[in-house]
Write a structure and sequence with these properties.
Structural class: alpha+beta
Number of strands: 4
Shape: elongated
Order of helices and strands: EHEEHEH
Number of helices: 3
Distance between the termini: 36 Å
Largest sheet: 4 strands, antiparallel
Helix content: 40-55%
Strand order of the largest sheet: 2-3-1-4
Oligomer: single chain
Length: 93
């Protein structure tokens, strides 16, 4: 059973590697780590509180509110667009 967690403040590849490293140290079965989102294959006895504590230590947090998830998704799309140096006419984007 997969579990998708939306993560606030993941904005670069360094953030991804930090989260990946911490999840591996906790013994999580990780399917994928992307900007703003991690997918776990299954819960491996890791308590949600423990996971939140580890993420918070690095400035991340699990997003549970639908509006906050949408805001984070928009932010990530803009970050990816700017990384591609395709920032012409961002207002129309």
């Amino acid at each position: 059973m997969e579990q998708t967690l939306n993560i606030k403040n993941m904005v670069c590849n360094r953030c991804k590697s930090t989260v990946l490293r911490e999840l591996e140290e906790l013994g999580c079965d990780i399917k994928s780590v992307e900007l703003g989102q991690i997918v776990l294959n299954e819960r491996t006895g890791i308590q949600a509180l423990e996971l939140e504590k580890v993420l918070h230590k690095h400035g991340f947090e699990i997003i549970k509110d639908e509006t906050e998830i949408l805001i984070e998704e928009i932010k990530i799309v803009l970050i990816k667009k700017i990384e591609k140096e395709d920032n012409a006419n961002l207002s129309s984007f």
